[in-house]
Amino acid sequence: MQRPLEPASPSLEMDLLWADPVVGIKGFEPNLRGASFGFGEDVLVETCRRLDIDMVARAHQVRIFIYPKKNTLC
């Protein structure tokens, strides 16, 4: 990505910035901020499997609890 960047909506850049994990949903739902989407644990697990990675680290916002420790993905 070229910087600086002002992401268009909808776009991959917008999703990279604003998509959030949401406890208790499956798949995707509109984000509460009105930008991008919230995604469920099923999406997170499948994405990690497809990318052959062990976890996703959130960088823009500290969360005390996202998913139960049994998964330790986020």
UniProtKB/TrEMBL annotation:
Keywords: Hydrolase, Manganese, Metal-binding, Protein phosphatase. InterPro entries: Calcineurin-like_PHP, Metallo-depent_PP-like, PP1_catalytic_subunit. Residues 3-62 form the Calcineurin-like phosphoesterase domain. GO terms for cellular component: cytoplasm; nucleus. GO terms for molecular function: metal ion binding; protein serine/threonine phosphatase activity. It comes from the Eukaryota. This is protein-serine/threonine phosphatase.
